[in-house]
Amino acid sequence: MGTQAARILIVEDEPMLAMDLEFMLRELGCEIVGVASRIDSATRMAREVQCDGAVLDLNLDGSSANSVADVLSERGIPFIFATGYGDQNLALRFKHIPVVEKPYNHETIHSALKTVLAPDM
Q: Given a cut of 50, is residue 1 above it in pLDDT?
């Protein structure tokens, strides 16, 4: 990481995975600015929270997180997708966004975030 911690928004509907991801990101030196588990709260946070990047679960309780990704894109906030379903639900407009397959680890999360946040990480 650089001199300032990257501020990250987590969008994950599985509480244990969200906690694990929060722990991993903190170990990487990130500051967690919010954790959302539903489309409505994730969309609100994506609009309002000041962050450097985000990790988005592609499927939130059966709903696509593409609308959340749209808000982040409009704001110019880089993000990665995390999913257990592969990239078949990925909208064409997001084919360039890194996808991390669940279960992920420190290395895969760090590598994907570096891709979108560098040189911040």
A: no
Average pLDDT over residues 5-28: 96
Greatest pairwise CA separation for the chain in angstroms: 38
Three-state SS for 34-98 is EEECCHHHHHHHHHHCCCCEEEEECEECCEECHHHHHHHHHHCCCEEEEECCCCCCCCHHHCCCC
Q: Looking at the DSSP assignment, which residues form a beta bridge with residue 35?
A: 10
Burial of 57 (0-12, 13-18, 19+ CB in 10 A): buried
More confident residue, 4 or 75: 75
Q: Coil, helix or strand for 105?
A: coil
